[in-house]
């Protein structure tokens, strides 16, 4: 492992230096990026996986549960997965600024909240989809998150009556191949890869790190990750504070 930093101000100064000299930086982020925006993550002490529901969250977010318990799935989805009051935090906003300035080539995210786009990021590869796209399984008509929240029970298409499914990757489903390939290409071509707010334990997303061939690998995460040993810099601090530069 390279250098380790726990002070957020020091981390911000180092990130500023690395981004300023990068030509094709890529940011790869997870749930921890959005916790400062009030969206709970999954695996931390206060995360969804440590809260009590009628069914385990891991089960409710599975493809089989969606098929067999569609009404219960949508109850959980509306209440816990859609958070339209959330606003981009400093990390989202800085990443959008870096892209506009020509220092950041792409964001690869495991999040489904759309906050990177809300902050102004343009090249965003959403590995796990987005709550802002909900698609009729019969005719393909797309509905917004607001539309889903306004419905009750199991939502059906206004055009053909088909079942509407969130365009998110549930457990047991494959990642979208086009998004996956675009993410791999971005990481392969990056000279700086900053990984933030992810424990790097969910595959296949976590495996994308192995495609990086650039100069600087940086991890910004409060807890240790399996990739810390391979990083040139590890910033064990709040990610929003680390991007306050």
Write the layout of secondary structure elements.
Elements: E1 3-5, H1 8-21, E2 25-29, H2 57-60, H3 63-68, H4 70-81, H5 90-100, E3 104-109, H6 115-119, E4 124-126, E5 129-136, E6 142-143, H7 145-150, E7 164-168, H8 177-189, E8 192-196, E9 216-220, E10 233-235, H9 239-242
Parallel strand pairs: 1-10, 2-3, 2-8, 3-4, 8-9, 9-10
Antiparallel strand pairs: 5-6, 5-7
Describe this structure in words.
- By secondary structure, this protein is α/β, with parallel strands linked by helices.
- Helix content is 31%, strand content 18%.
Shape field: elongated
State the major sheet: 7 strands, parallel
Physical arrangement of strands within the biggest beta sheet: 1-10-9-8-2-3-4
Mean pLDDT: 94
Counting DSSP E segments of at least 2 residues, the number of strands comes to: 10
Name the helix and strand elements from N-terminus to C-terminus, one letter apiece: EHEHHHHEHEEEHEHEEEH
How many separate helices? 9
């Amino acid at each position: 492992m390279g250098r380790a930093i726990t002070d957020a101000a020091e981390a911000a100064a180092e990130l500023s230096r690395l981004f300023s000299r990068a030509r094709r930086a890529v940011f790869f982020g997870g749930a921890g990026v959005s916790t400062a925006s009030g969206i709970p993550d999954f695996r931390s002490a206060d995360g969804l996986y440590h809260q009590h529901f009628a069914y385990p969250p891991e089960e409710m977010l599975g493809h089989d549960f969606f098929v067999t318990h569609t009404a219960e799935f949508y109850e959980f989805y509306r209440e816990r997965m859609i958070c339209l009051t959330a606003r981009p935090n400093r990390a989202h906003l800085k990443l959008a600024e870096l892209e506009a300035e020509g220092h950041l080539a792409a964001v690869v995210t495991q999040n489904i909240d759309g906050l990177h786009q809300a902050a102004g990021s343009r090249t965003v590869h959403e590995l796990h989809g987005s709550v802002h796209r909900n698609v009729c399984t019969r005719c393909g008509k797309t509905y917004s998150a607001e539309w889903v929240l306004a419905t009750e029970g199991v939502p059906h298409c206004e055009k053909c009556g088909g079942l509407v499914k969130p365009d998110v990757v549930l457990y047991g489903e494959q990642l979208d191949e086009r998004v996956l390939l675009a993410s791999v290409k971005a990481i392969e071509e990056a000279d700086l890869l900053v990984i933030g707010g992810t424990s790097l334990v969910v595959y296949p997303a976590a495996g994308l790190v192995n495609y990086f061939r650039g100069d600087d690998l940086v991890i910004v995460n409060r807890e240790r990750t399996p990739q810390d040993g391979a990083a040139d810099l590890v910033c064990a601090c709040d990610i929003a504070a680390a991007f306050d530069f």
